[in-house]
Amino acid sequence: MSATVFSRRALHATTRRLAAVNPSAYKKTPLALSRLPAPLAIATGQQIQIRHAPVLAGPGTRVVSQLRHLTNSIPAAKGHQIAEICEEKLTFNSNRQAASSTVSQTQGQEILAAQRRSRPVSPHLTIYRPQVTWYLSALNRITGCILSGSIYVFGAAYLAAPLFGWHLESASLAASFATLPILAKVGLKAFFAFPFTFHSFNGLRHLAWDTGRTLTNKQVIQTGWSVVGLSVVTALGLTFL
Fold this sequence. Notes:
By secondary structure, the chain is mainly alpha-helical. Among the domains are: 1-25 and 34-48 and 101-119, no CATH class; 132-240, Up-down Bundle (3 helical TM bundles of succinate and fumarate reductases). It has helices at residues 2-21, 23-28, 39-44, 80-89, 105-117, 132-164, 170-178, 182-210, 217-239, and strands at residues 62-63, 92-93. It has a two-stranded antiparallel sheet. Helix 6 crosses helix 8 (182-210). The longest helix has 33 residues, at 132-164. GO terms for molecular function: electron transfer activity; metal ion binding. Its main location: mitochondrion.
């Protein structure tokens, strides 16, 4: 009888000591301390089973041992041995060890580059099917730059011609053009003919848009191909004129 009383007192002392060290663990853990088996059963090695619901341990509390099916694994014990067994089976860890490592600047740049490769980006234009409106919009700007740039360059050269002794009169230009080979004549005329015709017809198309007409997708595509066809035909006519 005295051994049983001493065993109960040892178990209660161990439980109070663990609760004082980490009280939060006992509050969060659904282990009912009141249902712990009698120390006499542990001492005699009888079959013991403690049931409790599984829980997700928080960041500061982790259940190391769950005290399930404590059968035949605990030898007969008395006195302070029971206290040691209970303390071993009711161990709670409230500290998390943080692992740290030193990263060089080169490794940091590599990690950052790998993270940036995984970030979402805008889709590339190659995922879209090409449309005639894309090319006509670009051609309108390119042909405008060719025509306006040529006029500006020739105008500046014509103004500076008296200072440098250049002959840029109409008669001189016609005579110089006549001396060029046939392929050079055709290429030079085509280089200026197509930008002139395309920019002119496409300008009329833009003027029609300003009036609020031909603005549907179907009409925009139809007028675009019409401008391309008229520009090519008239450019060929001017080239071989």
